[in-house]
């Protein structure tokens, strides 16, 4: 898994953002808008760290910060259009690499990998 992850990260040669920032954008895409505290919990980082990441993503105009509708002390962070486009580009690069690699495998090998994915998802499910 570690080697596969390294290969996938290698698709990011001209990356505009860090892997931490990319993970936050992916979480917002998958889970939708949320408070910084909820985002920190999802990413398993401390709230002050998440505040810095959100600020940097906001400076890059990849996320949007809006006031919380019911709690004036909170904000809601959502994915900006530019953030959504960046995630799409990152995903497309990784998927193109994986598609190329998987195309050389046989039907039996693909079946084994399909089963392995199900098991790995179960292992990391919250």
Q: Would you give an account of this structure?
A:
The protein is mainly alpha-helical and 126 residues long. The chain has a single domain, classed as Winged helix-like DNA-binding domain superfamily/Winged helix DNA-binding domain (Arc Repressor Mutant, subunit A, Orthogonal Bundle). Helix content is 65%, strand content 8%. It has six helices and two strands. The chain has helices at 2-9, 19-31, 36-43, 47-59, 81-102, 107-124, and strands spanning 63-67, 75-79. It has a two-stranded antiparallel ribbon. Helix 3 (36-43) crosses helix 4. The longest helix has 22 residues, at 81-102. It is elongated and about 55 Å long. It starts with a helix and ends with a helix. The model has no long low-confidence stretch (mean pLDDT 90).
What is Rg? 17 Å
> Biggest sheet: strands, sense, closure?
2 strands, antiparallel
- Helix count? 6
**Class per helix and strand makeup:** mainly alpha
Q: What fraction of the residues are assigned to beta strands by DSSP?
A: 5-15%
The string of secondary-structure elements, in order, is HHHHEEHH
* Highest CATH level, the class: Mainly Alpha
Low-confidence stretches: none
Say which CATH homologous superfamily is assigned: Winged helix-like DNA-binding domain superfamily/Winged helix DNA-binding domain
Helical fraction: 55-70%
How are the strands of the largest sheet arranged? 1-2
The CATH topology assignment is Arc Repressor Mutant, subunit A
General form: elongated
**Domain count:** 1
Supply the CATH architecture.
Orthogonal Bundle
Q: What do the pLDDT scores average to?
A: 90
